[in-house]
From TrEMBL:
Family matches, as SUPFAM superfamilies: S-adenosyl-L-methionine-dependent methyltransferases
Stretch list, region Disordered: 1-20
One matching Pfam family: DUF1156
Full protein name: DUF1156 domain-containing protein
DUF1156 domain: residues covered: 32-94
Domain of life: Bacteria
Length: 1024
């Protein structure tokens, strides 16, 4: 067993010759990388949600964790020495991921009880007092006979005994550490030959050692700005560009607001406060949010209505009529025969039965409108809309809205209806004495009128102000206020569009945007907003525009983007106990039209209008650049290019970003005259065909051109499909780049190191300029790939910690991909592969080119090499692909791995096309195998898996359990195998013991494991 530190040494076998002085010095990230620790730190950062440093600036999709960016930049800058263990120690020390760093980052302490449990294992309980309490419990305290320094020293020792995951719970993130102690810098400088006293000084000195100047890091797909921001923050000169100006604005805001220091943040907030107060006064003067009782609205709930073609009734549409789980508030439909419609009543504090009825009585189920009085009467949305097929093409049935439309016309299929308002009532309580205790009671209106000096009494603490939220159905006065809103907007509409205060841009057709036209008839971006939203946002823009143009004002531009993200007709109402609030527009990566939606009133916009970062950093921005630019037109040189390119249309950035750009259209040129305000969708590199591949080759060829010979690139990549990897290999190869290393970091959603569920690995490929002129033949590459794949896996397996695994099974398969790419791109030419031809030729369905075949071979090698523990290689190679798939799947279940993608990769590696019959469920993040007892006698056939030895063993386990006698299972095997039983008995025992051992570690396999244990014993004791 190797220790936790040694588990982090993940060596990457080199396929290049040693450095002779003419080649780049091998960097730390090209020799090893602390995959597990960086994954865990990335997860911690991701789980901070809105506490992440840059997410508060505005919505963008796929921002990479800042700690990952920091780690890869440092990994590129730090040279690999002849002492890899010391390299790793120093690298982790700089990132505060070593023992000293974790102690430095500790902001919370384990409880005394937790420390005591650790002390028991270490034999250090003498530092504690154990006092018996009257209730029989033991109270633990630190023994005060020891000095504070002694207690602190023992806490430090015990804290170190915790695993990395457990220590991380008590720690702040690395980015929140101001600096390392000078003693740590002495260690770092001694090893690296530097004189730094801060991370910024170290980065600059390492850059000068490599390039003769401070390192410059560029990102040509900068998106939300993670890479340029973190590069600048740790001391690099940063260059960021993006084709889309919305992305450029967010990246600019990252550097100039979060990176502007406390004074800049205060300056921006001051400007925001002035605009907010002026807008508040205007909204109040209009009288559009206050009711007759003086309550102010904070949320409005709308739904779509449509006429049922069968009953003729106008039906309000919503998938559920629950408004608040905590407040137990529901909407109730009441048929109004006089108007052929339904009244909507709002009830709060209802019974559990009424809540359940509201959940179940939604008038939208799937793609159907359901009649509230008869759920058997349902009409598909396509029929409602009048969609048709003409000449094999879909024809949309809805009327297309015109620019002047801000509400539906009376003849439109879908109407929009306000059905609930949440008001905030302010009331007061007074403190009184009752039974010798102070209690608070509510003041009546009559009592409140008599209070002469409310502010003094509040200050004295005898009266306090309180608020409560009240849901009501809109009355006639509320509907009049809706009419006032509409009239105010119409009076300003044309002028505001001209000034750019509200959008005037048409929605261009696309994968995401076409549904807006099909499902609602919306053709302009302002159609996605209610009149109330347009009026409020337009007011903010008008007031912002009235300010003198200065830096603080243009920094407020991102606040407009934050507001519209948190308020459109695509914003759901979250009725859950924890929330009862409107969500943001982009709750997923799509433009989803909704049947019911929520609108924030003015006071509720303060959370999105004001930028209130938890922390800010002062970044000196002398040589930092953010620009709107096509990657193929870049002429700026960078020592390192770190990119997370769009790939295979995983996210339609160019369409989604138009949602924001429609609001920025006239202000970006005003605030940033050097930028354009067009999304440049025609230039976007997207899709999967010839144009996409050519665009990617042109992009990476240009980046390689604008990089020194000793520079490097990091390409971040998430796909696991071998066809996509084959395309990527061809793209990088054609761009004159060579893969020198690749690491998989778990960066997304849930914990890779806890449950294995939901995780998506980001592959960070390290690339250098290709300088070789060497050529070879494809047949000679295969044995080379086999060698490097097996060497890679040997290194990873030897260095992994079984108790605290650094890798998942997916990591091993991705390592095989990377190994194949390293071999492939190490040659200038591999005959008979014609790179340009492969990139341009149309690919037929199911067709594989030589590169994809090579990558598939690498995966096959890896899959066959990774013999599950408990099985020997001689047995493994005799098994059928389906048997290997099943036994390997059982192994990953013991790791808590239930992702469907893992099984897809196994199937691909073993060459299996159909495997669903082996699964109990294929649901996302719940995928698992059928157990022996779940299989029963299903699939016992004369071919395929049904005829295999493993399938027979599984049924024998089932028979043992059902008949409570292992002889029954053994006799079944004898009857099936006949003369082959004795020659295959040892294999039967091995497989059965494997099932027993692994099954005992899986909750739903416990009965199977017990039966397998009995069967294995019976087989072992069977003699001729």
């Amino acid at each position: 067993m190797i220790n936790e530190q040694d588990a982090e040494l993940t060596a990457m076998p080199s396929i290049t010759s040693a450095n002779d002085g003419s080649k780049p010095i091998k960097s730390f990230i090209e020799s090893q990388f602390p995959v597990s620790k960086v994954s865990k730190e990335s997860y911690k950062e991701r789980m901070a949600n809105n506490g992440q440093t840059l997410t508060g600036l505005g919505k963008w999709w796929g921002r990479k964790p800042l700690i990952l960016v920091r780690a890869v930049i440092l990994g590129l800058l730090m040279p690999a020495s002849n002492d890899p263990k010391k390299d790793r120690e120093i690298f982790l020390k700089i990132l505060t991921m070593d023992d000293e760093g974790l102690w430095l980052r500790k902001e919370k302490s384990p409880s005394v009880e937790e420390y005591f449990q650790l002390a028991k294992k270490a034999g250090l309980t003498r530092y504690f007092n154990q006092v018996s309490m009257p209730d029989g419990k033991i109270k633990l305290t630190w023994d005060k006979s020891f000095s504070v320094d002694e207690i602190l020293a023992i806490q430090r020792k015990l804290f170190k005994q915790l695993g990395y995951d457990d220590r991380l719970k008590y720690c702040i993130r690395p980015e929140h550490v101001d600096n390392l102690p000078i003693s740590e810098w002495n260690f770092i400088n001694s090893h690296l030959g530097t004189t730094a006293t801060s991370l910024q000084e170290l980065v600059e000195q390492l850059g000068k050692k490599q390039f003769g100047h401070k390192p410059r890091v560029g990102d040509s797909f900068c998106g939300g700005g993670s890479i340029p921001f973190e590069a600048a923050r740790i001391g690099c000169d940063a260059f960021g560009s993006d084709l889309n100006p919305v992305a450029a604005l967010l990246s600019w805001a990252a550097l100039n607001i979060i990176g502007g220091g406390g004074e800049v943040v205060h300056e921006v907030q001051t400007a925001q406060e002035e605009v907010y107060k002026a807008a508040d006064k205007q909204i109040t003067d209009w009288g559009i949010e206050h009711n007759e009782q003086g309550w102010r609205a904070d949320a409005y709930l709308y739904c779509v209505e449509a006429v049922c073609p069968i009953t003729g009734y106008r039906i309000p549409l919503a998938p559920s009529w629950v408004i608040g789980e905590k407040s137990k508030t529901i909407a109730k439909l009441v048929r109004n025969e006089a108007s052929n419609s339904y009244d909507i009543e709002i009830h709060s504090g209802v019974s559990d039965a009424e809540m359940q009825f509201a959940r179940d009585s939604g008038t939208v189920q799937g793609n159907y409108m359901v009649n509230p009085d008869d759920s058997d009467i349902r009409t598909s949305m396509q029929v409602l809309r009048g969609d048709k097929t003409k000449d094999k093409e879909s024809v949309f049935g809805l009327r297309l809205w015109e620019n002047a439309d801000v509400v539906p016309k009376p003849e439109d299929v879908f109407q929009e209806r306000l059905y609930c308002i949440r008001y905030v009532e302010t009331y007061y309580e007074k403190k009184i004495q009752q039974n010798g205790k102070s209690i608070w009671v509510e003041l009546s209106k009559e009592e409140l009128i008599k209070v002469q000096d409310l502010s003094s009494l509040k200050q004295e603490g005898t009266i306090r102000e309180k608020t409560r939220k009240i849901y009501i159905a809109p009355n006639k006065d509320d509907l009049k206020r809706e009419k006032i809103v509409l009239d105010l907007l119409k009076d300003r509409f044309a002028q505001w569009q001209q000034n750019g205060y509200i959008p005037s841009i048409k929605i261009e057709p696309g994968t995401e945007t076409t549904r807006l036209q099909r499902e609602r008839g919306w053709t302009y971006w302002h159609h996605l907003f209610t009149p109330r939203q347009l009026l409020l946002y337009g007011t903010f823009f008008e007031l912002l525009d009235a300010f003198p143009l200065k830096d603080s004002v243009r920094k407020c531009l991102v606040s407009i983007g934050r507001m519209i993200n948190w308020g459109s007709k695509l914003s759901r109402w979250d009725s859950s106990i924890a929330n009862e609030r409107p969500t943001d527009t982009f709750s997923n990566l799509a433009l989803n039209t909704l049947q019911n939606y929520a609108v924030r009133a003015f006071t509720y916009m303060n959370t999105s209008w004001f930028i209130t970062p938890d922390r800010s950093w002062f970044i000196e921005k002398k040589n930092d650049v953010i620009n709107t630019l096509d990657v193929r037109a870049i002429s700026d040189n960078c020592d390192f290019w770190i990119t997370d390119p769009p790939y295979a249309d995983a996210v339609n950035y160019h369409e989604l970003a138009d949602f924001f750009l429609s609001w920025y259209e006239k202000f970006i040129p005003k605030y940033f005259p050097e930028w354009y305000a067009d999304g440049k969708k025609a230039l976007a590199i997207r899709g999967e065909g010839e144009d996409f591949k050519k665009g990617m080759v042109d992009a990476y060829t240009n980046l390689a051109k604008n990089m020194p010979d000793n520079g490097a690139q990091i390409v971040m990549f998430t796909h696991q499909n071998s066809a996509v990897w084959a395309d990527l290999a061809l793209i990088l190869w054609a761009s004159g780049l060579q893969v020198s290393a690749a690491w998989t970091i778990s960066t997304e959603t849930d914990s890779a190191f806890k449950t294995g569920n939901y995780v998506k690995g980001t592959v960070c490929m390290v690339l250098r300029k290709q300088t070789t002129e060497e050529e070879t033949f494809i047949n000679d590459v295969y044995p080379e790939v086999e060698y490097h794949v097996t060497e890679q896996l040997k290194e990873m397996i030897a260095l992994d910690d079984k108790e605290d695994p650094n890798f998942s099974d997916s990591d091993y398969q991705l390592a095989a991909y990377a190994a194949a790419l390293r071999v492939l791109t190490s040659y200038r030419k591999i005959h008979p592969i014609d790179v340009q031809y492969e990139l341009t030729k149309p690919r037929k369905k199911g067709e594989k080119n030589e590169v994809e075949k090579l990558i598939d071979k690498a995966v096959e090698i890896a899959t066959n090499y990774l013999v599950p523990e408990g099985l020997d290689k001689d047995l493994w190679i005799t098994l059928t692909p389906e048997e290997k798939f099943y036994l390997k799947g059982l192994e990953v279940e013991t790791h808590g791995e239930y992702r469907n993608g893992v099984y897809q990769e196994f199937a691909r590696g073993f060459g299996i096309k159909e495997y669903k019959n082996l699964l109990s469920t294929g649901k996302a993040n719940e995928t698992r195998l059928r157990s022996a007892l779940e299989f029963k006698n299903k699939g016992l056939t004369d071919e395929g898996f049904g005829a295999s030895m493993l399938r027979k063993v599984l049924f024998a386990v089932h028979e043992t359990h059902v008949k409570e006698d292992p002889k029954e299972g053994r006799n079944y095997l004898k009857g099936e195998l006949q003369k082959e039983y004795w020659s295959r008995r040892q294999k039967l025992i091995t497989v059965t013991r494997y099932i027993q051992n692994l099954g005992s570690r899986i909750e739903h396999w416990q009965d199977d494991a017990k039966a397998a244990n009995l069967l294995a014993g019976s087989l072992e004791n069977d003699h001729v």
